[in-house]
Design goal:
The chain is built from 13 helices and no strands. It has about 300 residues and is mainly alpha-helical. It is flat, with a radius of gyration of 28 Å.
Amino acid sequence: MTTSTQAPPPVTTRLPGTPPNAPHAKKAPASARIRTALYAVIGTVVSILFVAPVLWSVLRSLQPGAQIAGPAAGQSFTELSFENYVGLINNIGAGSYIWNSLTIALGSAVLSVVITTLAAYALVNYPFRGSNVAFALILLTMMVPFQAILTPLFLEMNALGLTDSLAGIIVFHLTFNLPFGVFLMRNSFAQIPAEVVEAARIDGAGPLRILFSVLRPMIVPGAVTVFLFAFLGAWGDFLGALTFLTRQELFTLPVAVENVASGAFGTVNYGYVIAGAVLLMLPCLILYAAVQRYYVRGLVAGAVKS
C-alpha cells in the first residue's frame, strides 16, 4: 500500500489592506518618496521666504549706521559689529526699556494664565446657574477693539491711579487677554473626560488638588498658548504704552524705538532703529520656536471643541 503526499499550497504575503495581484502595489513606495520630496521642497522654499527677511535684518543691524542709510553692497558686509546694539544700550538707555517691556510681558502673561485657568476650570467643572450666559458675555468682549474704548479706559485708570505705572499697563493687557484666554482654556478643560474628575473626587481629592495634580498635565498646551499670546501682545505693544505712560524712564522698547526713528534723541540713527527692531523680533521668534508644538496643540484644542 502506497501513500501519496501532496505539497502544501504556496504561501503568499501581501500588505494588509492591499488587494491581491494589485498592479500598483509596487509603485506605492515610489509615489510616497516623490510626495515626501515634494513636501520637502515646498517646505524649504516657504522657510526661506520667512527666514530670509529675518536674516537680512540681523545682517543690516550689524552694519554701521552710515552704510545702512545707503544701498546695500557686497563690500558693506565685511565690517560687521555689535556697535549699534552697544550704542543703543549705552547712548539711548535701551536696557531699562527692555526691562520694562519684559516686566510687562511676563507679568501680563503669567497672570493671564493663572486667572484664565481658574475661571475656565470653574466654568467647566463647577457650572452654576447662568454660567453659559457669563461665558457668552466674556466672548462678547472679544468683539470690541481696545482702540474703541481707549479714552474711557484711560479716564478710569487715571482715576484709579494706574497711569504712569508698569502695574497699570499689566492690568491694561489683562483686560484684553482674559476673554480669549478663558475661551481657549475652557475648551481645553472641556476636552478632558468627566470620568477623570469624578475618579479624582472619589479618591478624596479636593478642587485645587484635582486641578494641579490631575488636570495640570492635560491643559499644558492650552496654558502655553495663552501665555504665548499674552506675552507677544504685551512685548510688542506700542499704543497702550504710549497712552498710559508719560515718564520716559517707564517707556517700553517699542516706544523707545519709535522715538529713535522719529528723531526724539537727536539725529536719526538707522543703525539704532534696525537694532531695536531686531531686539523686538528675536525674543518672539525664540519663544515661539521653543513652545510651538504646545502652541499648535493648544490652538487645535480650542478649534475642535466648544
